[in-house]
Design a protein that fits this description.
Helix content is about 55%, strand content about 5%. With about 170 residues, the protein is mainly alpha-helical.
């Protein structure tokens, strides 16, 4: 059991993601998301991997790439804070990251594999932290943050985007 993070240990913007996580064990959620996400994406026909549900929206592969990029960034933040970093870590513009990535031209299979590798590293990182590291407070994008909060945010961010994939992208094509 890992209690939900308290207000003030993360930016209020992330409440939406934290509230997406059911139960009281975000590490278990992260593990369960691996198989479920891989199964979901394995059902996407090759000709629909670059499907967008509306003009200007990301493709299926771009959503997957965004999940991977964001998880890496949040893990970097968690590592920095856990190790005692005192400067505010930079924010990022997810739209710019996707625009400058090559997700559309990559194989979905490779993105699925990369997701699994990143997720395993995420789980290993958080399992390695002591209670003191896990609850140490730092700053990201000039907002308070703890590794504990970032763990919950990673699980909820993934859940949010998986739900979007299911309801706005794949429901009509699968």
């Amino acid at each position: 059991m890992i209690a939900r993070p308290q207000a003030g240990t993360y930016a209020p913007y992330f409440d939406n993601y934290i509230n997406q996580v059911s139960g009281d064990n975000p590490l278990k959620s992260l593990r369960e998301q691996i198989l479920g996400f891989k199964a979901l994406l394995s059902e996407v026909p090759e000709e629909l991997e670059n499907y967008q549900y509306a003009e200007g929206k990301w493709t299926v592969k771009e959503v997957v790439g965004h999940i991977i990029d964001t998880e890496r960034i949040f893990c970097f933040r968690a590592l920095c804070v856990a190790r005692g970093e005192t400067i505010s870590l930079p924010g990022f513009d997810e739209n710019e990251y996707v625009a400058h990535a090559n997700f559309k031209n990559r194989d979905l299979y490779d993105l699925i594999h990369e997701f699994g590798s990143v997720r395993e590293a995420t789980i290993t990182l958080f399992k390695s932290m002591t209670e003191e590291e896990f609850t140490r407070q730092g700053l990201a994008n000039n907002n308070p943050v703890t590794p504990k909060a970032l763990l919950w945010i990673i699980a909820g961010h993934h859940q949010h985007h998986e739900t979007v994939l299911r309801t706005r992208y794949l429901e009509s094509i699968l």
